[in-house]
Amino acid sequence: MEHATESRTDIAVEQEEVVVRIRGLCKAFGSHEVLRGFDLDLLRGENLMVLGKSGSGKSVLIKCIIGLLRPDAGHIDVLGQDMLALRHDALDRMRMRIGFLFQSNALYDSMTVRQNLEFPMRRHWSVMDANERKARIMKALEDVGLAHTADLMPSELSGGMAKRVGLARTLIMRPEIVLYDEPTTGLDPITGREIVELILQLQRQYNTSSILISHDLNVAKLAANRVVVLHEGRAHAQGTYDELLRAKDPVVRRFFMAL
Amino acid sequence: MNRAAPYLGPMVSTTGYRDLIEEAGDMARFTGRFFREVLRPRYEWEELLRQAFINGYRSLPLVAVTAFIMGLVLTVQSRPTLERFGAESMLPAMVAISVVREIGPVITALICAGKIGSSMGAELGSMKVTEQIDAMEVSGTNPFKYLVVTRVVSTTLMVPVLVVLADAIAIWASYIGVNFKDTVSWPLFHQQVFDSLIFSDLLPAFFKSFFFGFAIGIVGCYKGFHTERGTEGVGRASHSAVVVASLMIFMLDLVAVQITDILGLN
Asked: What topology does CATH give the domain A3-106+177-257?
């Protein structure tokens, strides 16, 4: 890991609250080792981006954080809880504090947009008044500029609209941490930029901490306070976008040479 | 596992036996998980009712048409043979016993395997490959409980209901078939049918249809939940759900016949 950037992170960790702490994370699929001792700290209010090539294990990393995949070794602490020690119900409660935006948006295609947003609320806030629930859904849709789509089916939405609805569904439960899996993949550059700006706006509005997974340097430039380069299963380098842009490390250089 | 083998999956692949045993083990684990989850709260009543409506009520037209044709054809085709022995008066009894004991439950279950099993395989498979099942999990919902338990319970409860309705429709169609050549009143036909049926005709047939429903649900959900390789996998899940569920229905029927025989209910 690069020295200049390592010290910067250490100072930040000492001064600020760490909401996600990952140490020595390992995950293999058969003989293919994807993560080989990955370390990461996410600070409260921070937008951290994990940058890596396709197939480098970025999605595996965030799926381990949310508990969709179980790592082979390592520790994952989220909001002070050891995620790997949580049992079903406790894990479900913890997941309410973590939002996850899927690369494919993963909207339930048998439900309308409104029902998609209502689904987690009905299950976890069943005592909430129906009118209040409806108001919250409309507010979430207004926040992403799609109040008029409430009664549409996901198949009737464009890629950008589906991403916005996915974002609204992710944020409707007011999570403290949001994990974004390739938020701009499959979108044209203009829509991609709009989505990144929306993510930033909503992060300020909802006061979330975020981990963004992407290979898109524009996301890093626009949204990330800090960038971690994932290479060969480890955090190879980290720093701000500008620091990494100036880095001499050949692995980091290869990412930025494409610009 | 050799995924290249069509529909029957491991059953026709070169490393077939090992893959077949592995898949049987996976399915047994999946079934074990169903029994653990079905008793544990939270209970998904709303989704269960929705699934019962979809799998029961919406399957009724297809089952009804099939049962009607089945009763009619069985009557019309059996008449010449019975006439040869001068036993055409036995036609209502023969059709009723055939339909209630064997044809009704098996044909209804096969129709349901085709309709419900394939739709479950495709729906859950599609949800799997588009990460909707993962989305459900990260939203703090147990997808196994919400998607699998409700579907399996609904088919287990609805298939016997459909079987009873199919039996009734087939017997009514038989009445129409009998009257193509003869004139038999409904009360007489009704009396002949119910005089020929005894309790041990009804109970085993009704009881085994619960197992048929369970097999359709568990196979459809298993295939959907274990879908891999994108849309191609969805098609494969849908087809193999039908094939495996149909085979299981025949195997369960064979077991049920043996048990009925051992218990002296034949």
From this structure: Rossmann fold (3.40.50)
